[in-house]
Amino acid sequence: MANSIKGRNFLTLFEFTPQEIEHLLDLAAKLKAMKKAGEKHNYCKDKNIALIFEKTSTRTRCAFEVAAADLGMHSTYLDPKASQIGKKESIRDTARVLGTMYDGIEYRGFGQEIVEELAAYAGVPVWNGLTNEFHPTQVLADLLTIREHFGSLAGRHLVFLGDARYNMANSLMVGCAKMGMHFTACAPEKYFPDPELIERCQNIAKRTHAILDFKTDPMEAVKNADVLYTDVWVSMGEPDEVWEERIHDLTPYRVTQALMEEAGVDTVFMHCLPSFHDLGTEIGRQIHEKYGIDCMEVEDAVFESKASIVFEEAENRMHTIKAVMAATLGGK
Ligand code: CP
Ligand code: NVA
User: Fold this and answer.
1) Which residues are CB-neighbours of 173 under 8 A, at least 6 positions away?
2) What is the reported pTM?
3) Ligand 1 atom closest to residue 58's alpha carbon, by position in its atom list
């Protein structure tokens, strides 16, 4: 199994079999246990990786940097202002340059086609650290978190509430389809995922016995769910003008205590983070002044409740990203 992953890119999760995803989760769990026990695991000693971030990040950048250090690697962080990428040098040329110096490259940015082009020309593994369309390293961490909490993945029911056309819902749908889970997107119809992507995932679901469905009524959608999952209503790179419409359209899909109660006593709350659950952020305060609301996609009481496993989920970003790097670089 380890050999089948060595040398490969990590771009969408589509490219990995359920068995390979399970292997990455097992490896992440093992690396997590080793880290907690203080056992050294510098399996990629003296390799070098480049981290390209065309959008901002806390978790993903830190997860890559800490994981790289734990694996014995050196990392170079490139932000859009400090490099030639895109402005003076094409992605294709950048890929061919970085591929001569680095053993692996992470990319966070805009269109999925950019990370695909990077991967086509780099000659070394490329890892998608978030594009508009997909966020596969986040979903790997989510799967590990769900598996840790419930003991298994197959048959678990995850309901995503909010803008289901974007990276998080897309990647959760792919991950749930691969792992034989039940994925529900709950949103106004115009926020449902792209029909072609749904069809691709439904084809996978036929083989894995996953269930994928799409609902508009939150109270109906959340019944007996294992996980209620949400994401910000406006994603990085989107214009400020969309706020008003999103607040209007998505407020009925906010994860509230009433929804959590309707879902069930054992239901957990998950969120990729960052989250607008209170007035502790600049944007949260601006939105409060303009629209009079004190939270957006999730109520603070849910975010801070015992059912919320968002910080376990955030920690797992590091362990799963470490597993992806170790497996694709051939260290494990
Ligand atoms: N969840 C996530 O990707 O967080 P960052 O934007 O902080 O990396
Ligand atoms: N949909 C969000 C995810 C952040 C991790 C965004 O793209 O901004």
Assistant:
1) 160, 183, 185, 193, 197, 198, 201, 212
2) 0.98
3) 7
